[in-house]
Write a structure and sequence with these properties.
This protein has helices at about 20-30, 85-90, 150-160, 160-165, 235-240; strands spanning about 1-5, 35-40, 50-55, 60, 65-75, 125, 135, 175-185, 195-205, 210-215, 220-230. Helix content is about 15%, strand content about 30%. The protein has two domains: about 1-75, Roll (Thiol Ester Dehydrase, Chain A), CATH 3.10.129; about 85-240, Thiol Ester Dehydrase, Chain A (Roll), CATH 3.10.129.10. An eleven-stranded antiparallel beta sheet has the order 1-3-4-5-2-8-11-10-9-7-6. The chain has about 250 residues and is of the alpha+beta class.
């Protein structure tokens, strides 16, 4: 079974490729329960792509020659830190490192060059001294379905970028790409609802960094959580990606 999609450049993460969390969400919405999505390579924007069911619960995102992502049912079990208040999360955004050091300032989720109608503007900064990062998030109506509920792929996207900033806190010029996101969307939020997004480091080894992330609604109830694997990139890879901007 196949379906066809085109990811518009509105949803860009790194230059000329789609935000990883959003890509994971496009695949993840085909399932009930937790889903693991592995990103094989950056997914191009403004290009016709195929979502294909390969049986045994496995779905892939591809074009005629290349597989970009693979999704399959999974489990995610995390110890989720107590979230800060909306006001505390809002204050934490002032410490968001991306305000002065951002490798992808046009990212749909965390890009500082985006406005509310063109980006999610989730700017996770440190809260206290325990390593937790947080951002306030009041999702715009453009992210909602006809009933005003935020589409699940955008909850997946919200779980993405904060994890990067939590895993690289204090590292000047650090860069990484999302390699895998295992998420469980357990609820939803309305457009205009005052939400809190959190993220925390879970260690790592070699080029891999692990992060947890979560989204809470206006009543501080957990509605989405994820475990992410980030792959650090070196200066040469970073330069190549940033120089590809048209």
């Amino acid at each position: 079974m196949k379906s066809f999609i085109r990811i518009e450049d509105l949803y860009e993460g790194p230059p000329q490729s789609a935000n990883g969390g959003y890509v994971c969400g496009l695949l993840g919405t085909h399932y009930q329960g937790a889903v693991q999505v592995t990103l094989k390579r950056p997914t191009p924007v403004s290009q016709d792509l195929i979502i294909e069911d390969q049986g045994l619960g496995v779905r892939v995102l591809r074009d005629e020659e290349t597989v970009y992502a693979v999704a399959e049912p999974s489990e995610v079990s995390l110890s989720v830190p107590v979230p800060p208040s909306f006001e505390e999360a809002e204050e934490a955004t002032h410490r968001f490192v991306g305000h002065h050091d951002h490798i992808f300032p046009n990212c749909f989720v965390c890009g500082t060059h985006r406005e509310k109608v063109t980006g999610m503007r989730i700017f996770a900064g440190p809260v206290g001294s325990g390593g937790l990062h947080a951002s306030d998030w009041t999702p715009h109506v453009t992210l909602a379905d006809a009933s005003g509920w935020i589409k699940p792929e955008f909850l997946w996207a919200a779980l993405d970028c904060p994890g990067f900033f939590a895993t690289t806190a204090g590292e000047q010029g650090a860069s990484a790409l999302l390699g895998r996101l295992t998420a469980d969307i357990t609820g939803s939020v309305k457009a205009g609802e005052r939400c809190v997004v959190t993220a925390w480091s879970m260690g790592g080894e070699g080029r891999k960094r692990l992060a947890g992330s979560a989204v809470f609604n206006a009543k501080s109830a957990l509605v989405a959580l994820a475990k992410a694997t980030w792959i650090t990139i070196d200066a040469t890879e970073k330069k190549k990606m940033t120089e590809s901007v048209i």
